[in-house]
Amino acid sequence: xxDLKPARVRFAPSPTGRFHIGGARTALYDxxxxxxxxxQFILRIEDTDRKRYVPGAEGEIMESLRWLGLDWxxxxxxxxxxxxxxxxxxxxxxxxxxxxxVARGHGYYCFCTPERxxxxxxxxxxxxQPPRYDGHCRRLDPEEARGRVAxxxxxxIRFKTPREGSTTAVDLLRGPxxxxxxxxxxxxxxxxDGLPVYHLAAMVDDHMMKISHVFRGSEWLPTFPLHVLIYxxxxxxxxxxxxxxxxxxxxxxxxxxxxxxxxxxIYVLDLKQMGYLPEGLLNWIALMGWSYDDRTEFFTLDxxxxxxxxxxxxxxxxxxxxxxxxxxxxxxxxxxAPDELADRLRxxxxxxxxxxxxxxxxxxxxxxxxxxxxxDEAADIAGFxxxxxxxxxxxxxxGKNMTREESIVATRRSYEVIESLPTIEVxxxxxxxxxxxxxxxxxxGQLFGILRIAITGQRISTxxxxxxxxxxxxxxxxxxxxxxxxxxxxxxx
RNA sequence: GCCCCCAUCGUCUAGUGGCCCAGGACGCGGCCCUCUCAAGGCUGAAACCGGGGUUCGAACCCCCGUGGGGGCACCA
Length: 493
Known about the structure:
This protein is mainly alpha-helical. It is built from 19 helices and eleven strands.
């Protein structure tokens, strides 16, 4: 644990779509800081937009986080001292603070209709002016406005952004960012449906929940000064702000988006489905925007908790590199204990419709471990272990630079050699087959190539001799017999 | 159009004024190992966006360009 004060950090996604790797990284950094400092990691759902609400999205967020191992200490499902953790259940707080802002002279009621606003925008566009609220209701007499509200007229509450001067907001990675207040708008804080907009809701909650560090995407940088202004207007102490750069397409052109889904998987649960380990995914994501030193790249979650530091965060955008994900995933697969790997492999093999025999699974796991990068590759390389029979392509049973007849002879003699062995443990089996190859003036590659096709039905597989041992003498002999038949029937044709 | 951010190999990055004719990783090429595929080992090509300053000295500091990205909703 570090010497930093316990941090209270929150991950605050909106349930408007699927959970992707960008969100996962933000959540990871939140989690790391909380765990490293002995603080709390909080999950808060920002569901104030009823139009964009997607049923099931909240569930996917939680399922993804749990799968990744990023467990939260407070959240909508488990509660906590600052409940509720779903913004739709906190409307009274937002309304209260919006009114408070009005009372303090930092906000005002606005009765402009959406129609007038879009009209206004159109005009400004035509005149090539920046699209901004014209302050129509800002000038209204507060008493009069209150009266109209009391009369039941539809209204929103806007922030009364100072017309003059400038505001400086401090981002941990970028330092002070100063903007002219005149470039800011009188943003709507409370919508006419009584629900808040992000600008209000997030500030209120972060303050009420005593959040110490805010990690969020850099898309919030343009309105960052507004958020600071709100804090100042309410006399609140600001958290430490950390804006994380966004993820770019693999091409580096444009930000990663839904459109990439399908081509490049960006959703956490899809990546899980594809056979990625949470460990691999986490390792990959952690290094996009953060680094430890000039050589260490392999990290477990515990190591990340130990080594993470705000100082090593990087502000520039990062293009997503799936090749590197494969690399990390392969590394993590290889670092798993065989028993553990077997447990992880099981569902993926079953997903392929294979009947998984536990004894065989245990035996082949070490064989598979060195050669897969994702869990779903196991079925490709070792599926034949679970098949009752294999169907080799007869033409592939012919050895390299060999005739059909030579291949038949080689296969038959292999049968005899194997049959004569008391057991087919790796050592004696390999020795016997190598002797046979030599006798027949074949290279080991030629002989093993034929047998590989005969036994596994495929060109690429786990190591031949070891695989034969697992399959067992009788079945090996069956498969070789089958291969001889195939070769002969093909010869007759 | 306006505002904001960013800028080291193709990609992720190390580098915080001299340790850098720039280090690591992925990917790519070659070699070795080898029963296939991997894994592993060795090895090669590959970058400080440009121009001005500041300084004895700049990848590192400042300015201006340029490029890239983001934002400009009663979305988050």
